Amino acid sequence: MVAELGLGKYRRHIFLCADQSEPKCAPKTKTLEAWEFLKSRLKELQLVGPTPLVYRTKANCLRVCMMGPIAIVYPEGVWYHSCSPDNLEKIIQEHLIKGNVVEDLAFARNPI
Questions:
Q1: CA-CA 20 to 30 A from 34: which of 58, 61, 76, 83?
Q2: Which residues contact 74 (CB under 8 A, 6 or more apart)?
Q3: Contact at 8 Å (CB) between 75 and 12?
Q4: Beta-ladder partners of 17
Q5: How many C-beta atoms lie closer than 10 Å to residue 91's C-beta?
Q6: What is the pLDDT along the chain (112 residues), one digit of tens a residue?
C-alpha cells in the first residue's frame, strides 16, 4: 500500500475540510464541491498517482469554523480560507506547484 500510494515521494500534503458531520465554516455542498474540484484538478495536472507530487486528505473539520472551506498545506504549514474551486486553483498553481504562498488567502502558518 505504501508503494501504491507513493508515500515518501510527495513534496506537499494538502488537507481540506469537507463533508463535515456538522458543517460550520461553509455549507456542506460547498465543501464537497471544493473537494471534488481538488481531486479532479490534481489528477488532471498529474500531481497524484504512482509518483505523486501532492498528497491530498479530506478532513472532517480543521476547527477553524469560519470563511471555509479551510485548507492547510504541509510541510510549510500554511492555512488557507475561502477554498472555493477558483481559490483552490490559485493554491494549486502557486503553492502546490511553484511553492509560493497565496498571501491573500493565507491566514496562519505553522511549518514543520
A1: 76
A2: 12, 13, 14, 15, 112
A3: yes
A4: 59
A5: 22
A6: 877 777 788 899 999 999 888 888 899 999 999 999 999 999 999 998 767 789 999 999 999 989 999 999 999 999 999 999 999 999 999 999 999 999 999 999 998 8
Distance between CA atoms of 49 and 5, rounded to whole angstroms? 7
Q: CB-based contacts of 7: which residues, under 8 Å, 6+ apart?
A: 55
Non-local (6+) Cβ contacts of 87 within 8 A are 80, 102, 105
Q: State the cell numbers at 76.
A: 510549510
pTM for the model stands at 0.92
The three cell numbers locating residue 69: 472551506
Q: Specify the DSSP element, H or E, that contains 37.
A: helix 28-44
